[in-house]
Write a structure and sequence with these properties.
Helix 3 (64-72) packs parallel to helix 4 (90-98), helix 7 packs across helix 11 (205-216) and helix 8 packs across helix 11. This protein has 2 domains: 4-126, Response regulator (Rossmann fold); 144-216, Winged helix-like DNA-binding domain superfamily/Winged helix DNA-binding domain (Arc Repressor Mutant, subunit A, Orthogonal Bundle), CATH 1.10.10. It contains 11 helices and 5 strands. It has a 5-stranded parallel β-sheet with strand order 2-1-3-4-5, with helices on both faces. With 217 residues, it is an alpha/beta fold.
């Protein structure tokens, strides 16, 4: 069995120890390294080549937002899950915009943390519809007009059917739910989602949701 390689980035050694213990309990997940600050994240990723990075947002020297942005600029960036204490923290939205694949609350049950790592490693969405809606509801209003214009321009590149799929993704719907509502097979939905990701030049469904929300704002 091929293990999912995980790097932990958090300034609290107790948090890192807890995450290591949780993840090491799974046969298909391996914690390959740790870093105590975002400033060390890039070097740690280059040294350990993780598939997934669990990244704390609030760190003293370099926060998780800047570190995530730096990781996204690597030739083969890892998936990033940001860790936070508050579900509606504005820092979470900034981290997602910087390229993070999703987020976890630090009090998430152990089994769900492992499941999230597996989902993100596989390139799947890990945000539930309720969490997606909560995050988008708390988006800040900074540069709102520019964001709306740019988002609308990018969405204009989609076909009508792709736009329908993007709107459904933006509401937090799963592929199965989209297939049922738009009367198409799940395989067709997956093909449309893949096309939307490519045309919008975004990494995952979370970023599709952000663009859809921005266009409506």
């Amino acid at each position: 069995m091929v293990s999912i390689r995980v790097l932990l980035v958090d300034d609290d050694p107790l948090v890192r120890a807890g995450l290591r213990m949780i993840l090491s309990s799974s046969d298909d997940v391996e914690v390959v390294g740790e870093a105590a600050d975002g400033a060390d994240a890039v070097a740690a990723v280059e040294a350990h080549r993780p598939d997934v990075v669990l990244m704390d947002i609030r760190m003293p020297e370099l926060d998780g937002i800047a570190a995530t942005s730096a990781l996204r600029r690597l030739p083969t960036p890892p998936h990033v899950i940001v860790l936070t204490t508050f579900q509606a923290d504005d820092h979470v939205m900034r981290a997602l915009r910087a390229g993070a694949d999703g987020f976890l609350l630090k009090d998430t049950p152990p089994a769900e943390i492992v499941d999230a790592v597996r989902l993100v490693a596989a390139g799947e969405a890990m945000l539930s519809p309720s969490v997606t809606r909560t995050l988008l509801t708390h988006l800040g209003n900074d540069e709102q007009t520019d964001r709306r214009r740019l988002a609308a321009e990018r969405l204009a590149s989609l076909t009508d059917r792709e736009r329908e799929v993007a709107e459904a993704v933006g509401s937090g719907a799963s592929n199965a739910e989209i297939a049922a509502s738009l009367y198409m097979s799940e395989a067709t939905v997956k093909a449309h989602v893949s096309s939307v990701l490519t045309k919008l030049a975004v990494a995952n469904r979370v970023h599709i949701a952000i663009l859809v929300h921005d266009a409506r704002s």
